[in-house]
Amino acid sequence: MTNLSDLKPGIWNVDASHSEVGFTARHLMVSKVRGQFKDFAAVVTVAQPFELSTVEATVQMASIDTNSAGRDTHVKSPDFFDVENNPTMTFASTTVTDSALEGLLTIKGVSKPVSFDLDFGGVSADPWGGTRAGFEATTEINRKDFGLSWNVAIEGGGMLVGEKVKIVLDVQLVQTADLPA
Fold first, then answer.
1. Full domain range(s) for residue 113
2. Cβ(154)–Cβ(137) below 8 Å
3. Residue 112's domain is classified under what CATH number?
4. I want to staple 152 with a disulfide (CB 3.0 to 4.6 A). Which of 58, 123, 160, 169 is the partner?
5. 153 to each of 70, 157, 158, 161, 175, how far by Cα in Å?
6. What residues are paired with 153 via a beta bridge?
7. Angle at 23 between CA 105 and CA 111, to 5 degrees
């Protein structure tokens, strides 16, 4: 199998222990800070015809990990995600093709259309009698579009945090059910 459209119709869930929801943002305009969310879930319904397939995902914002406890605390605060009032980030697809995943991304109560480029890794039987599929999805968003505007000007020009954020999903799915006939 080389195309997502070759997946067997059914319900597929993310295997979080073999998946990652990561991001990269510029810091001080000279380097990048990487992070990930540790608590997330997604359900992919592969339909027949494939164009009717759907993806629904939820990320728990409090699970952010940038390898810096102080930065994580700040990013969870009202300056950025305001996790107390906005505990989740969600994605609901509008279009699924072999090469793109389009839908509404909601962060901090703001929903915007985004398009992820897809790279399908293939399908394989697992040692437990199941079927797994893998893919990578990438997109770039402007954090200000989602109300994430906090920043600090730095001496000599520029800002502390870049506006553009690259999102990278490295996902393994496991088929959990067939679609009813």
1. 4-177
2. no
3. 2.40.128.110
4. 160
5. 20, 7, 6, 9, 48
6. 159
7. 15
pLDDT in tens, 59-101: 999 999 999 898 899 889 888 889 999 999 999 999 999 899 9
- As a whole number of Å, the CA-based R_g of the chain is 18
pLDDT at position 10 is 93
Amino acid found at 179:
L
Reference 130, options 177, 174, 179, 178; nearest CA is 174
Q: Are 47 and 33 in contact (CB under 8 A)?
A: no
C-alpha count within 13 angstroms, C-beta hemisphere, residue 139: 20
pLDDT, residue 75, reads 82
Question: Residue 133: is it exposed, middle or buried by C-beta count within 10 angstroms (0-12/13-18/19+)?
Answer: buried
Q: Mean pLDDT lowest for which of 1-5, 48-52, 175-179?
A: 1-5
